[in-house]
Amino acid sequence: MVRVAQSDPPDIPSSVVRRCLNCGAALTGRYCANCSQAADVHVPSTRELLHEAVEGITHSDSRLWTTLRLLWFVPGRLTQEFIAGRRAAYLPPFRLYLVLSIIFFLVASASPMRAQFVRFDTPNAAVSSAPPDCGKPQLTLYGRDFGPRLQHMCGEIARDNGANLLHLGIATMPKAMFIFLPLVAFLHMLLYWRPRHRYAEHLVFFLHVHAFFFSVMTAVVLATDAEPWPVMAKLGSLAPLLLWSLPLYTVLAMKRVFGRRWKATVAKAFALFAVYMVVLSVTMAGVFLYAVWQL
């Protein structure tokens, strides 16, 4: 029997395995099974980038508009949805708060409003380059003389009538809010001691409430700045109405989320207002002192 020598089969090139550019996992479809990034990743053209931005903002199922609709028109519903576990359709609380607070502080910092803490000049006074006379303040703490420092800060405030101090305070306030919000949420938790709610529920509640506050204050600043234009002058008349919506919104949100009777809710709202104003005053004082010290 003649045996035919069998040669080794030729090398068959294996198929190239596509890998995710984000995590390196093997791709088996249009999306990565490990990190969910799209398999087709390329640098978009300007047209594609604009189309994606417009579609993401204006799409009927966009989480942004769904979140803002509930935030503005149904007080407390976003917090209810978060506690109930229905979260996929909405922006996360912290992200929502962060976006609206950044928008507010950007608008406030760009506003032409000026602080008038001290008026060293008069409308008819001639412009002088000489530094204002702040006297010779004296303050000694722990053996250190702070008089020259106080004189310098006084001169800086007087030089532009507090405009720089105002902008320093606005720049410092977002950092102070990261201390203010958790503290207010903790004090609010004490108001609802029985039946108790988790601290995270109170914190999420105040993230949503302050997101609404920032959106309203942004509208107030824009309405105030719009007064010089006759076409938009009517927006300025809405500012008091917008400000009055803040306490009403808070009471409605408290009633929806924590479910007490109206009398108990209103009583707790008054107690919250008193606590809120005390903590806010202390926070504002701290921001003011920090801003003054940075001059």
How far the N terminus sits from the C terminus, by CA atoms, comes to 104 Å
The count of DSSP E runs of length 2 or more, i.e. the number of strands, is: 2
Number of helices: 9
Q: Beta-strand level of the residues, as a percent range? A: under 5%
C-alpha-based Rg, rounded: 29 Å
Describe this structure as you would to a colleague.
This protein is mostly helical. The protein has a domain at 63-115 and 162-293. The protein contains nine helices and two strands, in the order ααααββααααα. The chain has helices at 46-58, 63-73, 77-84, 93-110, 147-159, 163-191, 199-225, 239-258, 262-293, and strands at 140-141, 144-145. A two-stranded antiparallel sheet has the order 1-2. Strand 1 (140-141) and strand 2 (144-145) form a beta hairpin. Helix 4 (93-110) runs antiparallel to helix 6 (163-191).
List the helices and strands and how they pair.
Layout: H1 46-58, H2 63-73, H3 77-84, H4 93-110, E1 140-141, E2 144-145, H5 147-159, H6 163-191, H7 199-225, H8 239-258, H9 262-293
Antiparallel strand pairs: 1-2
Helix pairs in contact: 3-7, 4-6, 4-7, 6-7, 6-9, 7-8, 8-9
